[in-house]
Every structure is written in structure tokens, then in C-alpha cells.
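Project outcomes to date are best conveyed with an example. Our students and postdoctoral researchers have been running inverse folding experiments weekly, and each run begins with a structure described purely in C-alpha cells. The record below, which covers 105 residues, was selected by the lab manager from last quarter's runs and is presented without edits.
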């Protein structure tokens, strides 16, 4: 009987830690998604327009500006793939945490 009580206590603590772990992952995931969307809108609304205006001047751009434009273009092209990858990783982590206790039971 004592073994069953200790086993029940163990599983209760495990469930509590698992719940805290999952809830701790929610905030960073939301911040990452919102940050990525902000970057996407910033790129589409501002950087792309400034880039077109600077190209119209037909003067060489400073290296820092060229780097910023390159980074914006890179993330603008693969931004949606990065989001899907992050969501896929988050889902697989959550599912693996939930499935592992079921295998042990």
C-alpha cells in the first residue's frame, strides 16, 4: 500500500511539473510569433519602400544599409518557413512530453 501512495505522489508531482513546463513555453512561443509578424510587417511596409527609394537614387549604398537590406530580404523570403518550422518544433516537443508518460504507464 505504501508503494502505491509513493507512486501516486510521484505521478502527481510529475503532472505538476509537466503542466508548469508547458505553460512556461506558451509565453515565448507567443512572443516569437508576434515578433516575427512585426518583422514581416516592418519589412513589407517600410524597408521595402525605403529600399526602392534608395535604388532610385542610383548611388552606392553604405555597407550597413546594404547589410540591413540583405537581412530584410532574406527573412522576408523565408519568414513563413521559419514560422512553420518553429510551430512544428513546438508541437513535436509538446506531443513528446505528453506521449512519454503514457508509454511508461
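After processing, the design step wrote out the following sequence:
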Amino acid at each position: 500500500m505504501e508503494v502505491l501512495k509513493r507512486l501516486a505522489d510521484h505521478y502527481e508531482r510529475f503532472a505538476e511539473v509537466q503542466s508548469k513546463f508547458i505553460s512556461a513555453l506558451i509565453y515565448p512561443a507567443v512572443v516569437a510569433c508576434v515578433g516575427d509578424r512585426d518583422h514581416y510587417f516592418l519589412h513589407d511596409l517600410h524597408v521595402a519602400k525605403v529600399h526602392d527609394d534608395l535604388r532610385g537614387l542610383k548611388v552606392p549604398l553604405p555597407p550597413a544599409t546594404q547589410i540591413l537590406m540583405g537581412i530584410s530580404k532574406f527573412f522576408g523570403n523565408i519568414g513563413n518557413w521559419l514560422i512553420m518550422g518553429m510551430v512544428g518544433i513546438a508541437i513535436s516537443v509538446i506531443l513528446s512530453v505528453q506521449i512519454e508518460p503514457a508509454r511508461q504507464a
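The chain has one domain: 2-104. Residues 2-104 form one domain. The training component of this project remains on track.
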